[in-house]
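Re: [ENG-882] Designed sequences occasionally contain unexpected residues at chain ends

Forwarding the minimal case from QA. Structure tokens:
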């Protein structure tokens, strides 16, 4: 399992490096193109691409630092680094969307002439680079929140490049200049929608909320179904980092002398049914009720423990 984890992390880093190189190249081209043409749609896509480059760089750094081993001061290691990187990416993207929408609002009142030909060429280049980056990141996007954040950024930028292409075609065929600003608004709203979803996931992890794909009630029922288990309390499930969930619980059992069997079966159920491997389980006996002893002399009652 450890070998698979490290192999997956190494593959993720290679994919991130490739996507970073492509995005950086297109970013330079789009900045030059936006200054040349004065296109707000192209500037918005360049800003989006800039966030992609920063996000991919952060994702690459987080992927590297998350692989560092635990220390006495950091007993879980640095696995949460990728969650923090995804949080920073989300905040940057929200700020970028606000700037784009603000500029688009002002540009709609004062449309500017924009040449469609350069937009078409740069839009095709940007779309091709984004599709290539998505292809490199697709394999690990489902397993790592960090890579998923980078994948969503590239996906959003691909749609932005598609919007630039639409603006270029409209400008070349009709000369209708407001399309440039309208495409910018669409890119800004797209950024807000997809970033909000990612931000919600990141905040849930940082608040140690229950992972959305797990149901605490189902986990409790499965644990209580193990022979010898009477009840479960103080059950907590949270995410350490992408693909690694942790769980802790107090389990009341009939006989703590069967602790080895009980723990083995509980761990087997948690792994096989829910994919939870990092578990802390405390076995307990049901507390004994105190004996009620009536005093013959006074008729009063007292409690003693057996």
């Amino acid at each position: 399992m450890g070998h698979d984890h490290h192999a997956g992390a190494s593959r993720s880093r290679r994919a991130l490096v490739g996507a970073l190189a492509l995005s950086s190249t297109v970013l330079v081209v789009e900045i030059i193109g936006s200054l040349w043409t004065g296109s707000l749609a192209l500037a918005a896509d360049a800003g989006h691409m800039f966030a992609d480059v920063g996000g991919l760089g952060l994702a690459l750094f987080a992927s590297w630092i998350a692989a560092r081993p635990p220390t006495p001061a950091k007993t879980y290691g640095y696995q949460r680094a990728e969650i923090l990187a995804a949080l920073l990416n989300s905040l940057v993207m929200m700020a970028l969307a606000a700037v784009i929408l603000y500029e688009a609002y002002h540009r709609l009142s004062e449309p500017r002439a924009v040449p469609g030909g350069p937009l078409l060429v740069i839009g095709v280049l940007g779309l091709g680079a984004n599709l290539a980056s998505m292809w490199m990141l697709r394999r690990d996007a489902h397993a790592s929140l960090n890579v998923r954040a980078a994948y969503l950024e590239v996906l959003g930028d691909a749609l932005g490049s598609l919007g630039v292409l639409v603006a270029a075609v409209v400008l070349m065929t009709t000369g209708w200049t407001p399309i440039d600003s309208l495409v910018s608004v669409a890119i800004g709203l797209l950024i807000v929608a997809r970033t909000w979803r990612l931000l919600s996931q990141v905040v849930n992890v940082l608040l140690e909320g229950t992972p959305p794909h797990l149901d605490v009630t189902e986990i409790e029922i499965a644990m209580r179904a193990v022979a010898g288990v009477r009840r479960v309390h103080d059950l907590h499930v949270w995410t350490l980092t992408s693909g690694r969930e942790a769980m802790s619980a107090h389990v009341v059992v009939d006989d703590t002398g069967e602790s080895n069997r009980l723990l083995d079966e509980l761990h087997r159920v948690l792994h096989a049914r829910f994919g939870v491997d990092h578990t802390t389980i405390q076995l307990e006996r049901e507390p004994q009720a105190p004996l009620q002893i009536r005093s013959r002399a006074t008729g009063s009652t007292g409690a003693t423990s057996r």
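QA comment: On inspection the terminal residues look reasonable. Residues 216-291 form a domain with the Alpha-Beta Plaits fold (CATH 3.30.70.1350). Proposing we downgrade this to a documentation issue.
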